[in-house]
Amino acid sequence: MAxxxxxxxxxxxxxxxxxxAEKGEGPTVLFIHGFPELWYSWRHQIxxxxxxxxxxxxxxxxxxxxxxxxxxxxxxxxxxxVGDLVALIDALGQEQVFVVGHDWGxxxxxxxxxxxxxxxxALVNISVAFSPRKPNAKPVETLRSIYGDEHYIAxxxxxxxxxxxxxxxxxxxxxxxxxxYRTPGPFFLTAELLGSPDHQVPLPPWLSEEDIRxxxxxxxxxxxxxxxxxYRSLDRNWExxxxxxxxxxxxxxxxxxxxxxxxxHTPGVQNFIHKGGLKxxxxxxxxxxxxxxxxxxxxxxxxxxTTDHIFDFIKNF
Length: 317
Prior knowledge:
Elements: E1 7-13, E2 16-23, E3 28-32, H1 43-50, E4 55-59, H2 78-91, E5 97-102, H3 104-115, E6 120-126, H4 139-147, H5 152-155, H6 161-169, H7 171-180, H8 191-194, H9 209-222, H10 225-232, H11 234-240, E7 253-258, H12 269-274, H13 277-281, E8 285-291, H14 298-301, H15 303-314
Parallel strand pairs: 3-4, 3-5, 5-6, 6-7, 7-8
Antiparallel strand pairs: 1-2, 2-4
Pathway: Secondary metabolite biosynthesis; terpenoid biosynthesis
Domain AB hydrolase-1: 27-133
Family: Belongs to the AB hydrolase superfamily. Epoxide hydrolase family.
């Protein structure tokens, strides 16, 4: 059982109750999940890092799983999300922690390091590279101009629309579709792509029926609105973060991405990562790893390799 020995508790942070899974003793490693995910996405790494002498801690982020979901979209700004983590680090009794982020968790982790580098010993980010703020380009408008209105982030903007679609299709079906997506390119939220719930979606080999049931049960309970509100906050985050235009992330960093990851195939991203852009904004970037034949959910698809990559970096500090 991948979750053996993991304990669970609720921690009051930043005005909400946050569910936290943890295991092990030693230096603290804080794992930050993405969408549509939970602490559970890190189950393999929690066990793996705990066995190597670390205290592995993985919360359900605001709006997900057993953590409180605020009803208002305004409660999901990047400042709320980073504030939750700073409060969690305080509640864990730590001055500094190692941070590992994936997908939206990587975005939150980049901003945690941007706003509070004093609280992070070193960062391992997975899948989503740092995206410097462009002073004259709102993120959602930019995405629409590249991909059109059917792109999933554009579709997520309208309150309630994606939720209605997901309710019609069924929680488990939607999660199966999202986890099984392996096209190295943009994800469009269309009826054709999602298909009919009568159509059986096979699970990827790295996800068991037990795993998908865990995710589905938690999203049945919480709904998708909390997670989708992260996307609805993109333009507001852009407005609020104007003071950090041009700012660098000054934390020792390792970046890992799969070569089939849709985020790695966003126009301009590979050039930015490999031709000096990422290093310019993350001057303490020490390593970039591109894992071949691996998709977006790298920490679940290649669990032991991911754990090794994390350990090989953080053991140096």
